[in-house]
Amino acid sequence: MHASAPLGRFWRSADAPGAPLGCELCPHRCSIAPGSQGLCRVRFNEAGSLVLPFYGALSAAAIDPIEKKPLYHFKPGSTVYSVGYVGCNLRCPFCQNHHISQSTGAARERVSPKDLVAAALASGCPSLAHTYSEPLIHAEYLLDAMTQARKAGLYNVLVTNGCVLETPARELLALCDAANVDLKAWDPLWYRSELGGELETVKAFITLGFELGVRLEITTLVIPGKNDADEDIRAMAAFIADLSADIPYHLSAYHPSYRYGIEATPPSSVRRLAALARESLHYVYPGNLAHERADTLCPSCGHVLVSRLGYSVSTAGLSGSRCARCGAQSPIRA
Description:
By secondary structure, the chain is of the alpha/beta class. The chain folds into three domains: 1-53, no CATH class; 57-291, Aldolase class I (TIM Barrel), CATH 3.20.20; 293-334, no CATH class. The protein is built from eight helices and 20 strands. Helix 2 crosses helix 3 and helix 4 packs parallel to helix 6 (199-211). It is globular. The N and C termini lie far apart (47 Å). The relative contact order is 0.11. The mean pLDDT is 97.
């Protein structure tokens, strides 16, 4: 029983006493019987009401470089107070955080939105990120925490799979300053059958974030033989470019994890696919490659605005958000 758990939002009542209620948070639209949970494992039907027994239950809290999210064009060189949760509404067989995403058994500390914001302020970080496992399945807590964070002068950051319906997405993104969204593949069948996600929902989330002025960056984990076809990378880059060719696109090398034993992505493949994506986009960054630079250049004069080697970052090429050499406006939110 979860008698003391707060009530959720984004659900519809059962059609009759004892019948399942309908969750309206994500595209699964789970039909949850009394005493049962949704696919995400964190949203429960308790006596006909949707309750949140994991509201504010954090599985991790840490100070990270903003580049770890990865966010390259938002507050480069800064740190971000990062918190994680438990559960997920996808079932990615290559998940690097499966111990918290595919279970609710991880050690947790319950933290109120007020105390979370106080901890973020005490850390000295300018931003608060919801990350590690999928934060959007905890939408109610996020809305409370992000509202208080914004009032306190913190930037709100999301790292997410983007699998959430428009009504909660609109509320969350209205409070969000920057987000990295996984665009995991271009094949809708693979998205659905292998991951349990919906490509069109993710595309709609990305589009809505752009329309609401969120500083977006997109990531695809490049998995050999699964989502790395040339035409698919070109299509994802073109979709992003239709919003803005200045949106950063991260193509990250996959390494075996969880249930996938496929060999790691060769660095040469990531570099080649990045070159294809640059046919549409101005800023494409290969990721998860050791000892590989990932610099941002001035679009006007080619001067290095931000120099990156791993998490070693220099913003010496910037003057505010402008190029220190030619004065041109840069794509960076400094």
